Protein: Lipoprotein
Amino acid sequence: MKKQLSVIVLTMAIPFAAACGNEDEAQSHESHTAHTAENGDLQEMTASADTLPSFLDDKDDNMRAIYLAAAKHADVLDQMPCYCGCGESAGHKSNLNCFIAEQNGDEITWDDHGTRCGVCLEIAATAAVMTEEGKSPEEIRTLIDNTYSEGYAEPTPTPLPGA
Structure:
């Protein structure tokens, strides 16, 4: 997984054709529950992190890997801000909300916001790779804040790690 995530971070440098805010169609599966959130993002509940949402069916392996990494490292992504503007436009509190709207036991309500936003994907991939490398949430947060503090939207209102 570590090598795969490292490749993802390198791949994320290639610009995405779609930007935040575009509509994304999803296919429905009987084992999934899909609905549209108030902010227009598609959300879909699955029984566990082992079952990805159907809105990822037509996405590439890198994107699916980032969604899996978001679930695996949810505690870290919850401490990382997102700099795409989703704090204001979608009410997100952290980068985690770009991928996971809610987790209740094993059940996960996935959010498709990350499928349309390169900034969200880059931040999540960076946080996951650095976590796998043994970096602390504080070190990861410092890098992310330094990388995205200029030329990007205001960050989500994410408290500093340990605060």
In short: Confidence is low (pLDDT under 50) at residues 6-32. The chain has one domain: 2-15+35-148.
